[in-house]
Design brief:
The protein is α+β, with helices and mostly antiparallel strands. It has 4 helices and 5 strands.
Length: 142
């Protein structure tokens, strides 16, 4: 890869550029619904970090900050996606390293994330990045 990689926090007005990559990870959610959910999430403190090669957005990682009794201040990483054409090129690692540095600057004590149980490559990636499975994320449809 001879193009220069730039990783940065997106401004609120830029967030819609992430939707094509988020669609890759959520193919069963209609694009209009993803856009509506993004709008809702922005009002709840959602932010997103993006990786750019020149002007092309090739990776994203959503982030939320919060505090919980069990862990204190944390950064929740949500929908980490690298464009399939650029996977295994180190972009995901650089993106997550940037997010970790940001979490440290924000005074977070831990980072948390979820990965679909069927996404085995994501699990291997996160384990290589030093994440460990601590519990189960339970879901109940309403």
């Amino acid at each position: 890869m001879d193009r220069r990689l730039l990783i940065r926090l997106l401004a609120k007005q830029e967030l819609t550029i992430i939707l094509p990559l988020v669609q890759v990870l959520n193919p069963d959610v209609l694009p209009d619904l993803l856009a509506q959910r993004l709008e809702d999430m922005m009002g709840q403190g959602y932010q997103c970090v993006a990786a750019f090669l020149d002007d092309d957005c090739v990776g994203v990682a959503g982030i939320w900050q919060g505090t919980r009794f069990w862990c204190g201040r944390y950064l929740d990483v949500d929908n980490v996606v690298v464009d399939p054409a650029y996977r295994s090129s180190g972009i995901g690692r650089q993106l997550m390293d940037w997010v970790e540095q940001y979490a440290r600057q924000q005074g977070c004590e831990i980072m948390v994330l979820d990965a679909y149980v069927t996404n085995h490559s994501a699990r291997r990636f996160y384990e290589r990045m030093g994440y460990q499975v601590l519990g189960h994320h339970f879901v109940k449809s309403l």
